[in-house]
Amino acid sequence: MTVSSDLDRRFRDAAASQGLLDVAYDLVDTPVGRLLVAVTDHGLCEISYDPDLEREEEQLARNFGARVLRSPKPTDETRRQLDEYFAGKRRDFDLAIDLRPARDFGRTVLHELARVPYGELTTYGALAARAGRPRAARAVGTVMNRNPVPIVLPCHRVVGSTGSLVGYGGGLDRKRTLLELEGALRPLDS
Amino acid sequence: MRVPPFERFYEEQQNVVLAQLRRMLGRDAADDAFQETFLRALRAYSTLEHGRHLRAWALTIARNVALDALRRERVTSAELPDLESADEPLPYEELKRLTAELPQKERAAVFLRYGYDLSYDDIGAALGSSSEAARQATSSGVRRLRRKEQQ
Predict the structure, then answer these.
(1) Do B39 and B14 contact (CB within 8 A), yes or no?
(2) Which residues of B touch A65 (CB under 8 A)?
(3) Does the predicted interface ipTM exceed a cut of 0.85?
(4) What's the pTM value of the predicted model, to 2 decimals?
């Protein structure tokens, strides 16, 4: 006995439209690979590269509640804005972001990160200073590495004080791709 | 044992739930009941204290949804064929019409016995009772239909 895709989709839509979910998520195909995009009542709560679904679901359940379901509709607006961003037609994301699991310094840093403009680079040290702890560059690196919503919160725009890319949760190739898309880096082969 | 993310629960229980609903309601009505079953599960999901016996929990909700659906159906009854000597399972529509006014548990039991040719063990499992209780509900339903026919 297999549930038809139509019946399955109707349930997933109804669960979201009746407001019964803690988290709705879906997979979104982009030029930097397939992303998991997750949304709560408070806004976008997670974007993951190379998602392992069962692990992501467990983590979302711990952070936001066990009613985690794949349900495309609530993620539509994020998907649309990501499509526009990758098509070069959007510079700023206009999305509510759910940072409830972030604490104290991490949350402050992520708020500062949100203000780094499209196409510009900043450094870990500069971001630490703007968050009120100028000597905490290393801690800022940790916050970047755990950024729950990469791309939308632009940790790819944060580089080392010498200009080296340093690191990226999704891998340096993706960091380079995003910065090239924004015109902040010349393509390597040019 | 922790309560799993709902997605895992849904993926793991959807096929057995749909199978039970089709046995009890037929194919079309089972689709509506399927959605209602998992919406009810979602509404109650936050109150679960552990992740044990989730299949039994899902099937209990499905059974309640199906019994509600059977209760809602009000179809005028007509003459009764001799259920116990029929060789073939009766057509779903005919059985539905005949049993419309039975108490819900007897109706479900008669349905499963004569519409789907299930054993009393299976009927008991579907209704959450013993096979002896399933046999009694079935024969009590049949007696009630006979009395009605003789009126």
Answers:
(1) no
(2) 46
(3) yes
(4) 0.76
